[in-house]
Design goal:
The structure holds 2 protein chains of 2 kinds. By secondary structure, chain A is α/β, with parallel strands linked by helices. Chain A folds into 2 domains: 159 residues, Alpha-Beta Barrel (Aconitase, domain 4); 31 residues, no CATH class. Chain A is built from 8 helices and 8 strands, in the order ββααβαβαβαβββααα. The longest helix of chain A has 14 residues. Chain A is globular and about 65 Å long. The two termini of chain A are 34 Å apart. By secondary structure, chain B is of the alpha/beta class. In chain B, the strands form 5 sheets. A 5-stranded parallel β-sheet of chain B has the order 5-4-3-6-7. The longest helix of chain B has 17 residues. The chains are: A alpha/beta, B alpha/beta. Chains A and B meet through helix 4, helix 7 and helix 8 of A and helix 3, helix 4, helix 6, helix 11 and helix 12 of B. The complex binds iron/sulfur cluster. The site of iron/sulfur cluster (SF4) has 13 residues of chain B, from loops. Iron/sulfur cluster (SF4) binds next to loops of chain B. Chain A: Catalyzes the isomerization between 2-isopropylmalate and 3-isopropylmalate, via the formation of 2-isopropylmaleate.
């Protein structure tokens, strides 16, 4: 994974709540066997509407998305994160995220930043005309208008993102602990050791 | 057992969690061992590809089970000459072929499209005894919580997590907060498990369980069959909870005993002894609680494009202006626009063109029986363009046919299909055309879920059958009540 420390630039000032992963990428796009190329299917149903935010030239190619509560709810499809990554999104800011989505985003090097609703409301205003900076080192979102919004992020995730660590590789380094657990299960609950 | 060790009453969730911790980091993140992994064709190709790219392998193929379901057409899979029918859509065919190939390459047990055991992953797991109480179970599908109905800690994962489980048989997780949803009392006539979970989703809201693992408790749940409990746990994700649990009890054990992959003989006795220690201890605490009186639940139906948009069938389409919250009001306006509905319209006046009985929520034998009881001796309305009954697995299909349910469906005007996800999501040929309305026993009414422009009303199998017969959303209690008067 590519290390990531800062995302800087325009943002889609959106703020919609309960955006489900069907909206991010609809089922027709799930038949791919690759992680790439899904950006053109992202937000397809919204993009069919004239005047939608994603086709607004002011925000074209923005690396940041500002969303509302419960972003990424619904289906667990990781395609949603792949689609966002493929359309160039590197950070999503929202008051809350679905658990599955934020996990998927993290695993694809997309930062999910949780901020209180008033901060989101303010950033929606700001980003209509200005760039912002999402800084993982200092754990802040800032604008050149003087806004500074600190955010919290899981320490392990932060470290993985900053260093571009591969989670599977990290876990495989714990192999002996996994072996131990399997031996214990084979003794204490042997029926679980074989399906 | 665990509670004696820590000296503090524990919930079912905490007991399962503690029994699966491989490693605990200072920040509380745990490496959790995964006992069972279900795999289907849509979310797994990139995970296997990821393994191959870096030269890794599958650690415990023996703890996995692969079944095609999402893409598979539900029309005949074998032609009259006994040859298997090719899947027409090239992309679906490619995903299906890849699942078969990956399973073969890594030695993962696999049920092919024509195997009698094939079906929707969440129907197959419990049915085969692959799902066990106290086990951790994952699948690249958000309705994996279903398996919590048997007391398994089960949750949906994304493709990178699938890859992680394939390679390590573990996942890095943070423990969740605990939510108790207690339902007490008996359900009224015509009210079933689907109405219960729709009620829960309505009351908690789509995000109300976010960050929580739900445990469904109370006499209503205890009185429910395993099939009914599967319907409830299936939709935990629709109120934002990644997992929904139900304590295993004698019904659970009776259901599992003798299933092909369930423990046998001595192993069964040993398993039983452990399972009996799993239910939450008296005095165990939860971070959030919801109490529902079963007597207040009516047959429910959704009006909007989120599963929380629920009303009793006797109700009407809400006026978006009545929502205090701006974004809820906006969402409701957009929903009504998409659904082609106006405020205050009585739900029972909404005509429908399609009926879908199926999906991992409601495609088990009891669901089919409940629908057939309504359809028996009746014909579907001439308004209905298509009515489909899609059993959740080949075994469910066979049992239904042994009971003669297929005849009832077919004689009433339903199509009787092969098992699969079908019209639950627009990935296979079973779709609802744009602008048309479907009474559906599935779990999601999202925009475009059943096909672009499709309009979905979620309800129970009995209610779906009533809708088929009347050509509109209808109160099954009235339909059946009148019938009982006619035939005293
Ligand atoms: S039936 Fe629907 S919800 Fe269930 S696994 Fe299939 S697509 Fe998912």
């Amino acid at each position: 994974m590519k290390p990531i420390s800062k995302v800087e630039g325009r943002a889609y000032p959106w703020g919609a709540k309960n955006v489900d992963t069907d909206v991010i990428i609809s089922a027709q796009w799930l038949k791919t066997i690759s992680r790439r190329g899904l950006g053109k299917g992202a937000f397809e149903s919204l993009r069919a509407q004239p005047g939608n935010i994603f086709d607004d030239p002011r925000y074209a190619g923005a690396p940041i998305l500002i969303a509302g509560d419960n972003f990424g709810c619904g289906s667990s499809r990781e395609h949603a994160a792949w689609a966002l990554a493929d359309m160039g999104i590197e950070a999503v800011l929202a008051p809350s995220f679905s658990d599955i989505f934020s996990g998927n985003a993290f695993k694809n090097g997309i930062l999910t930043v949780t901020l209180p609703q008033p901060a989101i409301d303010r950033l929606i205003e700001v980003t209509k005309n200005h760039e912002i900076i999402v800084d993982l080192e200092t754990m802040t979102v800032t604008s050149n208008l003087g806004d500074v919004f600190p955010f919290a992020i899981d320490a392990f995730r932060r470290q993985c993102l900053l260093q571009g660590l591969d989670e599977i590789g990290l876990t495989l380094s714990m192999e002996s602990a996994i072996d131990d657990h399997e031996h214990m299960t084979a003794q204490d609950r042997p029926w679980l050791s074989a399906a | 057992m665990e509670s004696m060790r820590t000296g503090r009453p524990q919930t079912l969730y905490e007991k399962i969690w503690d029994a699966h911790v491989v490693d605990r980091r200072p920040d509380g993140t745990c490496l959790i061992y995964i006992d069972r992994h279900l795999i289907h064709e849509v979310t797994s190709p990139q995970a296997f590809e990821g393994l191959r790219t870096v030269g890794r392998t599958v650690r415990r193929p023996d703890l996995m089970l692969a079944v095609p379901d999402h893409n598979l057409p539900t029309t005949a899979r074998v032609d009259p000459q006994g040859r298997s029918v090719a899947v027409a859509d090239p992309q679906s065919a490619q995903q299906l072929a890849l699942l078969r190939k990956n399973a073969a390459q890594y030695g993962i047990r696999y049920f092919d499209a024509t195997a009698p055991e094939q079906g929707i992953v969440h129907v197959v797991g419990p049915e085969q005894g692959f799902t066990l109480p106290g086990a951790t179970l994952v699948c690249g599908d958000s309705h994996t919580a279903s398996h919590g109905a048997l007391g398994a800690l089960a949750f949906g994962i994304g493709t990178s997590e699938i890859e992680h489980v394939l390679a390590t048989q573990t996942l890095l997780l943070k423990s969740s907060k605990k939510l108790e949803v207690r339902i007490e009392g008996s359900l009224g006539f015509g009210v079933g498990p689907k109405d219960v979970i729709l009620q829960i989703v309505a009351q908690l809201g789509a995000a109300g369980g976010s960050g929580f693992v739900a445990e469904y408790t109370g006499s209503t749940i205890r009185d429910m069959s395993i099939e009914g409990r599967l319907t409830v746990a299936n939709m935990a994700i629709e109120h934002g909870a990644r997992s929904g649990l139900i304590a295993p009890d004698e019904k659970t054990y009776a259901y599992l005993r003798g299933r092909p992959m369930a423990p046998k003989d001595h192993a069964w006795e040993a398993a039983l002894a452990w399972w009996r220690t799993l239910p939450s201890d008296p005095g165990a605490t939860y971070d959030k609680r919801l109490l529902i009186d079963a007597g207040t639940i009516a047959p429910n139906v959704t009006w909007g494009t989120n599963p929380e948009d629920v009303t009793p069938i006797t109700g009407s389409v809400p006026d978006p202006e009545q929502f205090a919250d701006d974004s809820r009001r906006d969402a409701a306006r957009r929903s009504l626009d998409y659904m082609g509905l106006v405020p205050h319209r009585r739900m029972e006046d909404i005509g429908i063109e399609h009926v879908f009985i199926g999906s991992c929520t409601n495609s088990r034998i009891e669901d089919l029986r409940a629908a057939a009881a309504v359809l028996q001796g009746r014909k579907i309305s001439s308004r209905i363009r298509q009515a489909m009954a899609v059993p959740g697995s080949g075994l469910v299909k066979r049992q239904a046919e042994e009971e003669g349910l297929d005849r009832i469906f077919i004689e009433s005007g339903f199509q009787w299909r092969e098992p699969g996800c079908s019209a639950c999501l627009g990935m296979n040929p079973d779709r609802i055309p744009a602008g048309e309305r479907c009474a559906s026993t599935s779990n999601r009414n999202f925009v475009g879920r059943q096909g672009p422009g499709s309009r979905t009303h979620l309800l129970s199998p009995a209610m779906a059958a009533a809708a088929a017969v009347t050509g509109r959303l209808a109160d099954v209690r009235e339909l059946m009540g009148n019938a009982r008067e006619l035939t005293p």
